[in-house]
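Action item from last meeting closed. Structure (177 res):
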């Protein structure tokens, strides 16, 4: 998965993360959270990531971008499903490039890599979210052919609201599992 010639970054290499990369991945996640002003929301730790990314039930994958042998960015993604297309898709949860390495084509190379994976895996969509204040990222994604879905809103249930929702009784005649 080497992408050394596709970027202005010297000796760029893309590779799937391995279990030994968990601390590096967590460091990149923290860098992203700092950039997005959301550090206070990071509760992930090495063991949680190890179980989620490399345990018995792997729920996401990571591609790491390395320049001159050092991790400088990553894309963390997972499969979803489009009922309308009847096909799987890939959702990019996080795409992050260390500030010193931005503008060198690494983000484009990572997105292109995940797009190739989507095509190889028979996916009909590649999707991600971006914070509305992140003008540089929005411009970058639009330049790549991404479009904002203005008529859709993301809903999220976490913490005590998730706890409460999970305790709601099944509807009459519903299946218990």
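Sequence:
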């Amino acid at each position: 998965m080497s992408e050394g010639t596709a970027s202005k970054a010297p000796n760029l290499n893309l590779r799937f993360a391995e279990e030994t990369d968990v601390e590096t991945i967590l460091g990149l996640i923290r860098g992203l959270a700092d950039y997005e002003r959301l550090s206070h929301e990071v509760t992930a730790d090495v063991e949680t990531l190890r179980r989620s990314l490399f345990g018995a039930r792997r729920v996401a994958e990571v591609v790491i971008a390395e320049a001159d042998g050092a991790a400088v960015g990553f894309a963390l993604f997972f499969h979803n499903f489009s009922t309308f297309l009847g096909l799987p898709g890939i959702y990019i949860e996080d795409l992050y490039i260390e500030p010193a390495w931005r503008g060198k084509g690494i983000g484009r190379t990572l997105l292109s890599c995940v797009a190739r994976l989507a095509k190889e895996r028979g996916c009909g969509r590649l999707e991600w979210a971006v914070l509305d204040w992140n003008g540089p990222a929005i411009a970058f994604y639009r330049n790549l052919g991404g479009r904002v879905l203005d008529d859709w809103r993301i809903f999220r249930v976490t913490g005590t609201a998730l706890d409460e929702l999970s305790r709601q009784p099944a509807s009459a005649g519903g299946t218990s599992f």
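Note appended to the action item: The beta strands are 12-16, 61-67, 70-82, 87-97, 125-128.
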